[in-house]
Design goal:
Layout: H1 5-15, E1 20-24, E2 27-30, H2 31-47, E3 55-59, H3 64-75, E4 79-82, H4 89-99, E5 103-106, H5 108-114, E6 126-129, E7 141-143, H6 144-150, E8 165-170, E9 180-184, H7 185-198, E10 206-209, H8 216-229, E11 232-235, H9 241-248, E12 256-259, H10 261-274, E13 283-286, H11 293-303, E14 308-313, E15 317-321, E16 335-336, E17 341-345, E18 359-364, H12 376-382, E19 389-397, E20 403-408, E21 413-415, E22 418-420, H13 422-430, E23 435-445, E24 449-458, H14 467-475, E25 486-489, H15 503-512
Parallel strand pairs: 1-11, 3-4, 3-5, 4-8, 5-6, 6-7, 10-11, 10-12, 12-13, 13-14, 24-25
Antiparallel strand pairs: 1-2, 8-9, 14-15, 15-16, 17-18, 18-19, 19-20, 21-22, 23-24
Amino acid sequence: MSSTLLDVFLSHARQTPARMALTFEHQHFTYGRLAERVTAFASAMQRRGLRPGERVALFLENSPDFVVAYLGTLYAGGVVVLVNTAYRQVELSHILADSGARVCVTGAAGAAELAPLKEQLPALEWLVTTEASTAPGPWPTVEMEALLAEGDATTTLPLPEGDQLAVLGYTSGTTGRSKGAMLRHRNLLANARAVTEAWGWTEWDRLLLTLPLFHTHGLMVGLHGTLLTGASVDLRRRFVASEVLEALCAERPPTLFFGVPTMYGRLVEEARRTGASPRPLRLMVSGSAPLSPQLFHEVEEVFGERILERYGMTETLMNTTNPYEGERRPGTVGMPFPGQEARVVDVRTREPLPAGETGEIEVRGPHVFAGYWQRPDATAESFDAEGWFRTGDLGMCDAEGYFHITGRARELIISGGFNVYPREVEEVLATHPAVAEVAVLGLPDADFGEQVVAVVVPRPEQPPPKPQVLADWCKERLASFKKPRRVVLAESLPRNALGKVQKHLLRERLTQG
């Protein structure tokens, strides 16, 4: 049996070389053609001296070149360092220096962003650019097509073993510097197998993928699932609501679409604005940020489709999923994937809790990462002696086995001695007709220790809601201590590339302002 996803992909290319693997704008790549470019990239990297275990950073937008560089680096025995395209010099210098990346694959804009960092990145030796640079930079540079021409597309290279390091995925870094999660080849394969089994993914599926490939959701769910099953992917550079809706309304729509809640909200708005009638898909999946029950029902109303919500993170890939066949419960993230475990423990004693009680979620299984890059201290703090990983997420498991995420452990608000879970308050506020988006957080309070603060983005077609009205809305639906003591109206919420609200930035604004 294959021990790596790369081995599975190359097997598909040998057995069904004419099968379509990837489309992007006006480009089409069969499994055979894609494998040739991957092999040429790997061959060229080895000829240029890349040694097993050395790191190659991908600072790239979605494109076929990203896929080739990703698989090609793995085939060459290298370790891929995923870099968010929104990152700028502070984040870039940290990640590339921390990982010790020897090579970076990027575009012209990325090369320009990196240029001032030459002195801070002594390990970085050269760049691969996917387009011509307008000005020479401080590093030797080769364009992608020229690099591929250096390689041998027909050679056979040694395959990496399952225990070898494959990817460094850096955490979001909302508290302190981001850490590199070490993912082995066997972690990638085990999780892809679990996901495709749970969701009934087959070679006949076609995925519309607009999520960024530098992130777990787009890469290790979307692309990995496609390559494992021998399916195909319609890759887009980025999410554009009108273009996605057009694809979903096409005569031959995709069978799969994966998104984050922000994307689904935009699609609902676009469909209502245009009166479009999308065709039903086999599966629509949401993750990377909480999906409110209200949006769940709005999507069902507009698209005739019940979203399947799942739960994952950089360190563990996918942890739980609502059932493909069975009840998809809004506000929950379902049950563990096949071959994986999850439980809820008391945040102080670390003892498992019974159904219905809130604590920290822990997970265990072949999908869990090997630890943090060059951070044995952080690794030791994250695992117990039995291999359970502390996710840092608060939640509970109900009597039927569905997991509910209530927030991050560090986001728990303790007001007047009572625990307040931000998501619970957010979901209540989201049901108010004048509220478009909301984020709830705790700020220091002299009397209560912390006070509950809600940052609300009003709906544009509604008069701005009065703060007291929103506080009363919560008081009528929740215990009094959970109502916001302060409501702040804002034009928007700060979000990362996957739509997750960056509450640490909100906290900084509110405490400084």
